[in-house]
Amino acid sequence: MLSNFFQLPGIPTEIGDQDAFFKLAGEEKRIQSKLYRPSHLKSPQTPQRWIVRDRQFIEFSFSKTLIEEIEFNKCTFIDCLFIGSVFKNCRFSECTFISCNTYRVEFADVYLDPRSFSKCLDEERHQNIGVHLYQELLNNSRRQSQPDFAHYALFEFRRWLRLEQCYQFRKNHKQMRISRTQVKLALRIATSWAFQKFIGFGVRLRNYILTATAAASALTIFNHYFSAQLGLKINGEPLSSPIDAFYFTIITLTTIGYGDITPTSPLGRVLVAGEGIIGFVLFATLASMIYRKILP
To answer: Is the dihedral of CA 196, 207, 148, 143 positive or negative?
Structure first.
C-alpha cells in the first residue's frame, strides 16, 4: 500500500502525451511508477474504444485526468492514484483495483463492476473516500440500467456510510463529547448494522431468507411451548402438536388467518397480534426487494 495515500513514492517518470501512453501500454505488460501528465486521455480511433488488455499498472497516476472511450480488459491497478479523475464512456472488463486512491473520482456512462473495488480501500482509514466511490458507482450503474451492479453498489454505499459514522462516533468518544447528537449517531449505526445483517439493506435476498426462516422457526417454537399461556386452541382443544404450531405461525405471519386456531387469552391476543405485525413487515420487505429486482 502507498505509504502516502495521496502521492506516488519516489520520483515517477512522467508521460507527456497520450501517444506515449498508448505506445507504453502496447509494449509493456507491467507499467510501474509513471505519472500521466496531460489532462485528457482519449481513444485515437473514436468513436471506437481503444483497448488496453492484460496490463498491470503499479504506482501509476491518472489524477485529474479526463479519460474517454478507453476499454481496460483484464487489467490490474495496484497502488494507483485516480484523484479527481473522470471516466467517460469507458469500459472495465474483469479488472481489479488494489489499494488505489479514488478520491473524488467520477464515472459517466461507464461499464464497471463495483466488485472490482473490493480490495481498493482501507475500512479503518478511507471511509469518506469509500462513501463517495460507491455513491458514484451507484449513480453510474443506475444510469446504465445495470441492476446487479446497482444493488451491489447500494449495499456497499450504505455499509461505507456506516463505517464513516463509526469513525465519527469513535472520534467524538475519544474527545469525551457525549451529546444528543452522539446518541442519535449511535442509534443510526445500530440500525444500519441490523438492516445489513438481517435484510441485506433490502438488496440481498440471502440475508432476508435467513432472517425470515429464523423468525418463523423461533415463533413456531414459542407458540408450541407457550400455547397454554397464549390460549391457543384448535376445534376447542388446546394446541399440542408442533405441526399445528408451525401451521398457526405461518398463517399468522402471512396474515391469512383462517380462524381454525385462535388465541383465547388476553395475553395471547396481544402477542399474536404482534406476530401478525412482524409478518406484515417481513412480507412488505419481500415485496420491496422483488420490486427492486424487477424495476431497479
So the answer is: negative
Closest CA to 67 of 33, 101, 109: 109
Q: What is the pLDDT of residues 137-184, one digit of tens each?
A: 999 999 998 989 999 999 999 999 999 999 988 887 766 666 778 888
| pLDDT single digits (tens) 127-144 | 999 999 999 999 999 999
Strand pairing report for 13-15 and 50-53: unpaired
Residues 6+ apart with CB under 8 A from 239: 223, 224, 227, 232, 233, 245, 248, 261
Q: What secondary structure, in 3-state letters, does the chain show? A: CCCCCCCCCCCCEEECCHHHHHHHHHHCCEEEEEEECCCEEECCCCCCCEEEECCEEEEEECCCCEEECEEEECCEEECCECCCCEEECCEEECCEEECCECCCCEEECCECCHHHHCECCCCCCCHHHHHHHHHHHHHHHHHCCCHHHHHHHHHHHHHHHHHHHHHHHHHHHHCCCCCHHHHHHHHHHHHHHHHHHHHHHHCCHHHHHHHHHHHHHHHHHHHHHCHHHHCEEECCEECCCHHHHHHHHHHHHCCCCCCCEEECCHHHHHHHHHHHHHHHHHHHHHHHHHHHHHCC
Sign of CA dihedral 119, 105, 81, 4: negative
For 65, phi then psi, to 5°, come to -120, 135
Kindly give the pairing relationship between strand 40-42 and strand 66-68.
Answer: parallel
Domains of the chain by start residue, with CATH: 13-120 (2.160.20), 205-294 (1.10.287.70)
CA dist 289 and 296 (Å) reads: 10
Q: Is the dihedral of CA 267, 272, 275, 281 positive or negative?
A: negative
